[in-house]
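Design a sequence for this backbone.
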């Protein structure tokens, strides 16, 4: 058996907003699961990462159905020193999101187990599809707004200032 490459050091639930709604009528639930994440790399310890994974549940109908949900879980990960940058970037997204989603799924089932109806059991997802969808949306946003927001300010701050000698 090979050693794991992506190590979860610690995780925290930073936001858990769950509201139960009395269903207006019995029937099928029509909801969207909304996923997002942000990755940050440690500034001095190269193989360390922070991954913030977010999940929301939104009703597709005018009245809320069963649950509304807005959650964020943050995980701190590290990789062996010999792991390539490309591998770390891929693993933190695919494996990191899979690990945090599994933890979040269990925590939400536990929390909602005492709610009036059945517990909320998040669906099994193909994290590769979720991550690829998020990355595609982020790329579209960057294309539509190439110099907007905080990223432009960070980029400008990192640029070396030109110096002129007299």
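Sequence:
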């Amino acid at each position: 058996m090979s050693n794991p490459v992506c190590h979860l050091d610690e995780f925290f639930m930073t936001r858990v907003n769950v509201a139960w709604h009395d269903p207006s009528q019995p029937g099928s639930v029509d909801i969207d699961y909304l996923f997002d994440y942000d990755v940050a790399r440690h500034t001095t310890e190269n193989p360390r990462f922070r991954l913030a994974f977010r999940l929301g549940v939104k009703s597709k109908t005018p009245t809320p159905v069963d649950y509304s949900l807005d959650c964020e879980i943050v995980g701190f990960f590290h990789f062996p020193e010999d792991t390539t940058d490309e591998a770390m970037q891929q693993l933190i997204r695919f494996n990191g999101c899979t690990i945090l989603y599994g933890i979040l799924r269990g925590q939400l089932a536990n929390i909602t187990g005492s709610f009036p109806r059945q517990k909320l059991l998040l669906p099994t997802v193909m994290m590769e599809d979720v991550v690829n969808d998020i990355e595609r949306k982020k790329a579209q946003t960057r294309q539509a707004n190439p110099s907007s927001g905080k990223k432009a300010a960070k980029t400008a701050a990192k640029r070396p200032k030109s110096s002129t000698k007299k």
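The CA atoms of residues 69 and 84 lie 36 Å apart.
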